[in-house]
Amino acid sequence: MLKKLLYLFFLIFTCYTTFSQQRRALINGKVTDSLSTVKNANIINLKTNQGTFSSDNGSFIMFVKEGDSLRISSVQHFTTFVVVKKRNIKKKNIEVKIKYKTIVLDTFEIKRHDLSGRLGIDAKEAPVDKRDSLLRVRMDFSKIDKNVVGPIDEMDLAKPPMNNVDPTAQFAGAGAAVVVPFGYSERLWALRKKLQRKKEFPYKIMSELGEKFFFENLKIPIERYFHFLDYCNPLGIEQMHKDNKILDIIKVFQQESKSYLEIINKE
């Protein structure tokens, strides 16, 4: 009987330890270098293959657990790997410092010159360029009599033809105009801003409402956080956040969390 109780206790402890290891915590991080914070650094959790980017002040949010390996890379910095420690989970914070890439120039040799530093002496000893001397002789017009008048060239009196270089002249009277296609560029920038706002939305709404609201009040599992946001997204929560309608977002989360939990519990 005692052996069965010990075996049952060992089994419960093993299951609890495994569950604790699989549960990931949400921590805040910051990427810096020797000068200041680093923005747009790419942070990837190599255990889960989930990634994010650092904001303008170098901060980021990520789900991690003890022992996870983070890879931090940036264009102007060396790639750095960091292992999440127990203290990071406890403090819910991790700071990463990366190094600048130094550029090494090729070696070159500086030769000594024989100049004395006096312009008069150095000018006399400077070598003469023969090609420059011959050109100077050919281009010497000092002996030409400028008072002699030559015959009149009729080509000088001819009026040159007038060419119309207006690109819209052929459309004159038709109401046509030249249109520079900048609209495509504006739509492209608008799309980039929309994608950037969509990428930052999960982290902004988490920082504004807090972990307790999602994981304790709504009872959303941590690993299902992003999936729950996708479930609510068709109701326009991102547009509500853009319009600063935080109360409306909270109502949507409270209503939809009930049906969402029923769905995932049936899986």
Which descriptors would you attach to this protein?
elongated, 43% helix, 267 residues, three-stranded mixed beta sheet, single chain, 7 strands, alpha+beta
Description:
This protein is of the alpha+beta class. It is 43% helix and 13% strand. The protein has helices at residues 2-22, 86-91, 119-125, 130-138, 154-157, 183-209, 211-217, 225-232, 237-242, 246-266; strands spanning 25-32, 42-45, 50-53, 59-64, 69-73, 80-83, 93-97. The strands form 2 sheets. Strands 3-2-5-6 form a 4-stranded antiparallel beta sheet, with no helix packed on it. Strand 5 and strand 6 form a beta hairpin. The radius of gyration is 37 Å and the shape is elongated. The two termini are 37 Å apart.
Number of helices: 10
Considering DSSP H and I runs of 4 or more, what fraction of the residues is helical?
40-55%
Q: What is the CA–CA distance across the termini? A: 37 Å
Kindly report the spatial arrangement of strands forming the biggest sheet.
3-2-5-6
Average residue pLDDT: 76
Radius of gyration: 37 Å
Strand tally, please? 7
Structural class of the secondary structure composition? alpha+beta
Strand content: 5-15%
Task: Please give the structural blueprint.
Elements: H1 2-22, E1 25-32, E2 42-45, E3 50-53, E4 59-64, E5 69-73, E6 80-83, H2 86-91, E7 93-97, H3 119-125, H4 130-138, H5 154-157, H6 183-209, H7 211-217, H8 225-232, H9 237-242, H10 246-266
Parallel strand pairs: 1-7
Antiparallel strand pairs: 1-4, 2-3, 2-5, 5-6
